[in-house]
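Reviewer 2 asked us to include a model.

Predict the structure of this chain.
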Amino acid sequence: MARRWKILLAVLVFVAVAALRRGGPRPVRAGWPANVGHRGASVRFPENTLAAFRAALEAGAGGLELDVRLTRDGHPVVMHDATVDRTTDGFGAVVGMTLEAVRRLRAGGPGEGVPTLREVLEEFPGTSVNIDIKDWDLPGAEKVVLSVLQGAGVADRVLVASAEHRVLRRFRRASGGKFDTGASRREIAVFYALSRLRLERLIRPAYAALQVPVDYGPLRILTPRFVRAARSLGVRVDVWTINEADQMREVLDLGADTIMTDRPEELARVLGDRAEG
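Predicted model (structure tokens):
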């Protein structure tokens, strides 16, 4: 088993040197909030709705995390799943529906529907927003999202994320590096491997933040060493999704910069207690 891990690490080193050195490091923007409502205050309100986002900010969140998918006629709507079945009173794939059809759906209480990305940005001016592009297999989705962001003039308060490396690569190329992005799943794997070998200086990150869980399967991702390596490159560490106070305190003690939580009111209490202590 140990030999297998050494071989894997060696391969990842090669991939990092060959593929990631082309990236350009960008300084992390100061002031990104520590408390980010994951799909809003999604324990108490229907996820990814204006009500959930409003409640998260009222509860003490400094920023919002949301997911976007494109409708058939090319509008980014705020939706995590590929279908509307779980979170609305309708059914079917988002990509197969027009914006008009999505607007007719009920996503929560009376009058609560599925918002568009533009509506969220306009509803909460000045709020930091983490935007996760979910349409991995829809080339061009990132350009549509970029167009909305450029039209809204929000380069100073958004971060674009995706687990899929191709999506982020296309977004970075199209945006000319004017918008911060998170690391893709591939970039996180390379960073993790090189940081374990203390070779993180080989990386020239094209991302502003590593957005990670505490653990991934049997691997412990969030460690003091991981955080130190990220800081040495000017990269923020965002951790998802943390909902219990004890784990929030643990994650903060390990040095995380941001916590994404379904319970921003709980994280606000934890952060308040730490500030007073």
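Confidence is low (pLDDT under 50) at residues 1-7, 16-26. The first strand starts at residue 35 and ends at 38. We have added this to the supplementary material.
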